Amino acid sequence: MRSPGAACFEPRGRNVVKKSIVSFAGAVVLWGGVSGAGADVVLEWNEQVLQTIRQNGDFELSSPGWVSRYAAIVFVSMYDAVNSIARTHEPFVGFEECPAGTSKEAAAATAAYRALTQMFQLPVDLAQFNALYAAQMAAIPDGPEKLAGVALGMACADACLAARMGDGSTDYVEYVSGVGPGHWVPTFPDYTGPWGPHWAAVTPWCMTSGDQFRPATGPFGYSDMTSLLASPEWAADYEDVLTNGAIFSLTRTEDETIAAIYWANDRNGTFKPPGHLLHITQVIAEDRGNTLEENARLFALVALGMADAGIAAWDAKYATDIDLWRPITAIWAGDDDGNPATVGDPSWLGLSYDPAYLIFTPPFPAWVSGHATFGAVHAAIVRNFYGTDAITFTATSDDTPGYWRTFHSLEAAARENGRSRIWLGVHYQVDVDDGFDMGTAIGDYVSSGFLRRLGDLDGNGLVDGADLGLLLGAWGSKDPAADLDRDGTVTGADLGILLGNWG
User: Fold this and answer.
1) Cα atoms in the Cβ-side hemisphere of radius 13 Å centred on 190
2) Nearest-CA neighbor of 262 among 406, 420, 415?
3) Which of 81, 117, 297, 349 is 20 to 30 A away from residue 461, measured at CA?
């Protein structure tokens, strides 16, 4: 895979002219376009993010790590812009100052536009960004509120982009696989080298480190490859994918075959696994009638969780002793893994090798499953946002256009997302189970510790007497948790914010 070779401020394309704030704001006043009145700018930019992923899949957006990173930059920028006006919740990068009456729509739209145009500058991308932004800005009345929103959105996007400079995402390293049975090697048919061994060391967004939620031991509790391959648990997972993941499986149902392809989105030209979850987030948000402020926070939380999910999953894949081989490698060499219960089949192919679909195995180790980790993070964050797992939704997929699938709970969708990788023939159930557990922990951690309502100092979801006691106990100090206005000291201004969010 080609290296992007650029930090997050460096665009794709040539002859780029960066606009100043003055010229940028002036253009807003002059632009026309189709009115977007009544539309939610967060949801409109989510659709554009998905389209950008599809269009750039042959470059860095071929990988879930890059997809989740770029999405986090966009949605965090939008959230900080909207929240700098509302100031009801904690910022992520920080509050930016703005006058009273600043347009939230202009701020959010500009933040997304600024972030995307700094990260992607191919003509097809810029044409779409410009058209959407022009339509959104034309629907906002001209005046100082609009211009203040433009300045605020630019400041928040630039702050987020600056915060991610030097985060390790471009620090590519050579990867040397372990030697012998069990260790990952490039797979048939193109034997593509490993993607993302450096991603385990990318600076997390919310986690304290990439290994914060790493499973305490390896698959099934085995921390070395020899013990793992000799175990009965390995033999059972091997048999599971051998039978249920085969291209012409006699045990996989038709519905399971459809589900395997529905959740895949491995191919370039699709919105990839994180994009699929952003699509589902939009379906749920539209069904539940979210406000602009709610969507800004929901999408930022989901994007933050998925960005950390990518780092955590790749930590397990590359920064542990279990760089587990993919099923096609394991089954072709099944007679040589030291386990008498596994029978090799050099002719075996998984469903992912169906010529009508993909002919592909992901170019990185199997343990843990990225799909399962992303899916569990998403389910946990959306569950915590709405306070229930029992959310029914119907969503489509880029890999099954025109086909819609209905789920009656977030966990059910996440579980099927993970299990689909066995039906596709590219993972083992232990990859899915450990990824699900890790993703759930990350999602709960992000939900409880970030973008909380200002004044909710004890993290219980309410601003009440307990929080008041904590703030008064920190009075006059520099306690960052109680310094709600981020001015460096806990004062009456912070008390006012807490009382404004009471209950």
Assistant:
1) 11
2) 420
3) 81
Report the first-to-last Cα separation within the chain, whole angstroms.
52
Q: How far apart are CA 195 and CA 63, in angstroms?
A: 8
* DSSP E strand stretches across 308-373: none
d(CA 420, CA 371): 9
For residue 487, the Cα-to-chain-centroid distance in whole angstroms is: 31
Tell whether omega for the bond before 189 is within 30 degrees of 0, i.e. cis: yes
Report d(CA 89, CA 501) in Å as an integer.
9
Residues 6+ apart with CB under 8 A from 281: 46, 298, 299, 302, 378, 382
Distances 223 to 93, 216, 246, 333, 427 between C-alpha atoms, Å: 38, 9, 28, 21, 19
Q: Give the pLDDT confidence of 151-195 residue by residue, as tens digits.
A: 999 999 999 999 999 999 999 888 888 899 999 999 999 899 999
Q: What is the 3-state secondary structure (H, E, C) of 389-451?
A: CCCCEEECCCCCCCCCEEECCHHHHHHHHHHHHHHCCCCCHHHHHHHHHHHHHHHHHHHHHCC
Tell me if 290 sits within 8 A of 41, measured CB to CB: no
CA nearest to 483, candidates 502, 452, 455: 455
pTM of the model: 0.91
Model confidence at 481, pLDDT cuts 50, 70, 90, reads confident
Q: What is the per-residue pLDDT for 364?
A: 96
Which secondary-structure segment (H or E) carries 133?
helix 123-138
Question: What are the angstrom distances between the C-alpha of 216 and each of 114, 183, 213, 231, 375?
Answer: 41, 20, 8, 18, 21
Distance of CA 301 to the CA centre of its chain: 9
CB within 8 Å of 346: residues ≥ 6 apart = 332
What does the alpha-carbon distance between residue 224 and residue 125 come to, in Å, rounded to a whole number? 46
* pLDDT band of 31, cuts 50, 70, 90: very low
**pLDDT-based confidence at residue 460 (cuts at 50, 70, 90):** confident
